[in-house]
Design goal:
Chain A has 106 residues and is an all-alpha fold. Chain A contains 4 helices and no strands. The longest helix of chain A is centred in the C-terminal third of the chain and has 35 residues. With 476 residues, chain B is of the alpha/beta class. A 6-stranded parallel β-sheet of chain B has the order 3-2-1-4-5-6. The chains are: A mainly alpha (106), B alpha/beta (476).
Chain lengths: 106, 476
């Protein structure tokens, strides 16, 4: 590997736009739940748990490119895909069940 | 086509933001959840149509299998077990991220991954080197944090379930061992970059260490703090989704992960605030470390009350406040509680519920449990609203709650619960405590409210006791 400090400004310049996006997403993540009432803490946590299963996209991409990859990649990929799907589907279903109880009462 | 994909991901991301926003308001929470699920479905669909995706039968098969298992699991879980359920699901998400990272490593070492990566970075000079280092670090964070989130969540679930003692587990040099393990993981990642020849064993060692660390991390934290831990681990899983998004250069995953990570940490802080604790104190397990007051001898004596006397007391008072706790939910006593409340209301008694922010096992958990039993939403009073009214309350009925009404939180600086805001039940004219036995609460602290001269104890299983009370009130 080669290293030179001359490229450092280029590096920073290439990273900065991403950093802007990430920082904005962090603020958005905080702002968007800013005034959540205590009653909704558990459902919200459950919902965002389901959302963190978005890694399912990564599992799909992994299995999808595992054509030429060694077989353990396919096995690990499928396993992670199943787990992530359980996380997503189970998460949203559980959240829905919790929230339905609130709706019944208006 | 590619453009359409990117637009699809963008729409999915907008759904994520609007969904979370919707979920933080009771009026729109149900729609919010649907919008979230819709966004996720869109993200998956878009990914399935990416050009050059092979192994489609495997992908669809896994998706179907996962969906079936997920639906069955969520359908079978009882409402009292929701926190465990969320924890387990979160563990699955963490493990999924770790396995993706592990598979990437295998592809790098034995497949064409490394070749692809080197071709990509060749000719980039030191920028290529920077990129390689960035890639390795991101990959290893995915692997390690995913592993921590997995074993941590599973261990937290076991603690909530009572399969492992809810008490903090301590052993000599624990802090050193736990922090050392974290430090060792950082060293391993640095080592991989400096000595790539030995990278393979280091990767596997890192994964094993992260699994052990997850358990050690949750070990010293008391059962009462588990919701905070689960919420924290949840945001860690969000972080791994973000790093996986970086690896695959996928914006939906990256932004979705960051969104969950940020809101997860903030939600964790909100939960801590409700308990008047700092996140640091919870994560370091300080709750019980300073528990000098836990073993304090209680003065005074316990006074019991019979079902009939209790029924008379309740039926002839004008204001009754019920303080429900997890014990009520475990005994499945919310239905008889609701029946008793209706009965009292029909006799002209004002009857409401005082909900402590952390009643149950998670903030908001008690509301879910009570609304499940058809209790009207208007009768559920938050702590700030009900606390000024306790002096005018004739009877407070404490059902399966303990720490949330412990006056030591206000009076005894030596008590582990000191500083936690409580329901000021001790200010009421009469207090009836329905309790299985004199055992200490979840925090393992004695409660002097039980020794208060105004307090009467009604021992027994909450469900049985409440059913007897209903009969007694009916017979008056």
């Amino acid at each position: 590997m080669e290293w030179s400090l001359q490229d450092l400004p280029t590096l920073i310049n290439s990273v900065l736009p991403h950093l802007y996006l990430l920082l904005l997403a962090v603020f958005l993540g905080i702002e968007v739940i800013g005034r959540v009432p205590q009653v909704l803490h558990t459902p919200l946590m459950s919902g965002s748990n389901a959302l963190s299963g978005v890694v399912v996209v990564g599992s799909i991409l992994l299995v999808g490119k595992a054509e030429q990859a060694p077989w353990p990649v396919l096995v690990l990929g499928c396993l992670s895909l199943v787990l992530a799907t359980v996380n997503v589907v189970g998460g949203f279903a559980v959240t829905g069940r919790m929230l339905n109880m609130f709706r019944k009462k208006k | 086509m590619e453009t359409l994909m990117e637009v699809g991901y963008l729409v999915a991301l907008v759904c994520f933001v609007l969904g979370i926003k919707g979920m933080s308001d009771p009026a729109t929470s149900n729609r919010g959840n649907l919008v979230l699920a819709l966004g996720m479905g869109l993200a998956v669909l878009v990914t399935l149509f990416l050009p050059g995706l092979s192994n489609l039968p495997y992908i669809l098969g896994s998706l179907v299998l996962g969906s079936v298992v997920g639906l069955r699991m969520s359908g079978q879980a009882k409402m009292t077990e929701m926190p465990q359920m969320v924890s387990l699901l979160n563990g699955f998400g963490g493990l999924a991220a770790a396995l993706v990272a592990l598979a990437e490593v295998v592809d790098l070492l034995y497949g064409e991954g490394l070749l692809r990566l080197l071709t990509q970075t060749s000719g980039m000079g030191s920028m290529g080197s920077y990129y390689l280092v960035f890639y390795i670090v991101t990959l290893m964070i995915s692997l390690s944090v995913g592993g921590i989130s997995f074993t941590g969540s599973v261990f937290a679930m076991a603690k909530l379930d009572g399969k492992v003692s809810g008490q903090p587990i301590r052993f000599p040099m624990q802090g050193l061992a736990t922090n050392g393990l974290l430090f060792a993981q950082v060293l391993l990642i640095v080592g991989m970059i400096l000595a790539p020849t030995y990278a393979e064993p280091m990767v596997y060692l890192l994964f094993v260490l992260s699994l052990v660390y997850g358990v050690l991390f949750v070990m010293p934290i008391g059962g009462a703090d588990m919701p905070v831990v689960i919420s924290f681990l949840n945001s860690l899983t969000g972080l791994t989704a973000a790093t996986t998004g970086l690896l695959f250069d996928n914006r939906a995953m990256l932004m979705g992960g960051v969104l969950v990570g940020a809101s997860g940490v903030y939600l964790t802080v909100l939960m801590c605030k409700a308990m008047n604790r700092t996140l640091g104190a919870v994560l370091l397990g300080q709750f019980n470390a300073s528990g000098g007051g836990a073993g304090r001898e209680m003065n005074g004596q316990i006074r019991e009350i019979g079902t009939y006397d209790a029924a008379v007391l309740l039926a002839y008072s004008s204001r009754v406040v019920v303080v429900p706790g997890y014990g009520m939910a475990v005994a499945q006593a919310q239905h008889p509680m609701h029946e008793l409340e209706k009965l009292l209301v029909s006799k002209g008694v004002q009857c409401r519920y005082a909900i402590h922010p952390v009643a149950g096992r998670m903030p908001g958990h008690m509301n879910v449990l009570l609304t499940e039993a058809d209790v009207s939403y208007d009768l559920l009073m938050e702590m700030e609203a009900i606390n000024p009214e306790f002096p005018q309350t004739d009877v407070v009925v404490v059902v399966g709650a303990n720490d949330v009404v412990n006056p030591a939180a206000e009076t005894d600086p030596g008590s582990p619960v000191y500083g936690m805001p409580i329901l000021k039940a001790y200010q009421a004219k009469n207090i009836i405590v329905i309790k299985r036995s004199m055992a200490a609460g979840y925090a393992g602290v004695e409660n002097e409210l039980f020794y208060d001269p105004k307090t009467r104890m009604l021992f027994g299983d909450a469900k049985a006791v409440l059913s007897e009370l209903i009969q007694a009130v009916k017979g008056l």
